[in-house]
Amino acid sequence: MSPRRIRPGALEPDPELWAALDDGRRLTEILEDFYTRVYADPQLSPLFEDTSQEWIRRKQYSFLRSKFTGEDIYFGYRPRNAHHAMVISDALFDHRAELMRSCLRDAGLPLHLMERWMEYEEVFRKQIVKSAPVPLKIGGVEQPLEGYEAMVVEVGSLCDGCEQPLDEGTPAQFHVRTGKLYCEACMARS
């Protein structure tokens, strides 16, 4: 039985690769190693300064598992939207790919499976590489890249400017591209 296509242009699920990853256990180890290296890398770490390693590892695990198995389990943004605000050159994309390849090699993944993994990564190059941020698209509608919107805090949080508490019901402003939340005092100072 041949693997089914997820959608036109997508790579097919790869049961052999998934089996070599011990049904995900080795994928977890590879991603832990990879993101430890990413967060220590001077070229890549700035892209993740507001994202925890645990969060990004879990998202990437879910995304890759959905690609490798064909399971409909990923509920995050597609690569274009997930990287919409990041300026990523072909050289930086290649640097990241070499870092991943190194992790796969260190994990002992057979060469033919390493190459198939890297094919999955390469499919998304056109969606990720760009010279300037692009608008996030939600429901096919482009969202603004810059500016602030007023809101009322529904769940207690912290101001990303002064780190003071923002209680439920507090007026605040959030940046439409970064999602950072600011209290009225910080907005008045800026």
Topology:
Layout (H helix, E strand, L loop, with lengths): L14 H6 L4 H16 L12 H17 L9 H4 L7 H17 L4 H13 L1 H4 L8 E2 L2 E2 L5 E5 L4 E2 L6 E2 L4 E5 L5 E2 L1 H6 L1
Antiparallel strand pairs: 1-2, 3-6, 4-5, 6-7
Helix pairs in contact: 2-3, 2-5, 5-6
Structural account:
It is a single chain. The protein folds into 2 domains: 15-138, Globins (Globin-like, Orthogonal Bundle); 146-189. The protein is 44% helix and 11% strand. The protein has 8 helices and 7 strands. Strands 3-6-7 form a 3-stranded antiparallel β-sheet. β1 (137-138) and β2 form a beta hairpin. The relative contact order is 0.11.
Report the count of strand segments. Answer: 7
Uncertain spans: 1-9
Total domains, how many? 2
Order of helices and strands: HHHHHHHEEEEEEEH
- CATH class of the largest domain equals Mainly Alpha
Overview features:
about 45% helix, about 190 residues, Globin-like, three-stranded antiparallel β-sheet, single chain, 2 domains, elongated, 7 strands, 8 helices
